[in-house]
Amino acid sequence: MIKAVLYRPEGSIHSVYTVGYEEEIKMSASEMGLPYLIVDEEIGFKTHYVQNKQLVAIPAAPSAGHEFDYATKKWVLNLDNLRRRKKEEIQYEYEEAVGSGFLVDGSMYASTIEAQNQIQLAVTMQQESAALIMQDGSCSMVNAEQVKEIGAAMLQHLSDCIQRRSDAVAAVDAARSASDLEKVTF
Q1: Which in 26, 102, 143, 174 has the greatest CB count within 10 A?
Q2: Closest by CA position to 5, among listed 22, 75, 61
């Protein structure tokens, strides 16, 4: 079997073929208007490029925010990629913070979606007492006054998390360099 690649003028790999005859590659290359190169090894679209009719391995990226520029044959920093990754990191940290619980009078209450719904229902229904989930998984019976206080504390916890996320995302959008982005924390 013959292994070959069709490649673009700047050297990026367009397609990889394994065929029985070189004529099959020539036909595909002709139809697409691209040059081809017969290769001895298995390659990937993002692991190699072609330069001077030679297959060249792309070196490891310096960071996840870099993209390989086939025109210059160098890695270049892509700030948009870094921003996207930083926002994903912030979202993960936000979700962790939201679910980490909140403190009321020395007791740590759970803030999972289930616990939030339970607290919201107790507040809305103006229950005289309610069994609420604690962060450690146990339950605690609380009276109507405590339900209100816990509801207000939960709302403050969620608002604080939302504000922290909003501030962090705004800082990511305002960042003008990779070092600016590294400084952004949730």
Answers
A1: 102
A2: 22
CA atoms within 13 A on the CB side of 74: 3
- Enumerate the domain spans of the chain: 2-77, 80-183
Is the predicted pLDDT of residue 65 greater than 90, yes or no?
no
Query: How far apart are alpha carbons 186 and 182 in whole angstroms?
Result: 11
Q: What is the pTM of this model?
A: 0.68
Residues for the chain: how many in total?
186
User: Taken in order 53, 47, 66, 6, is the CA torsion positive or negative?
Assistant: positive
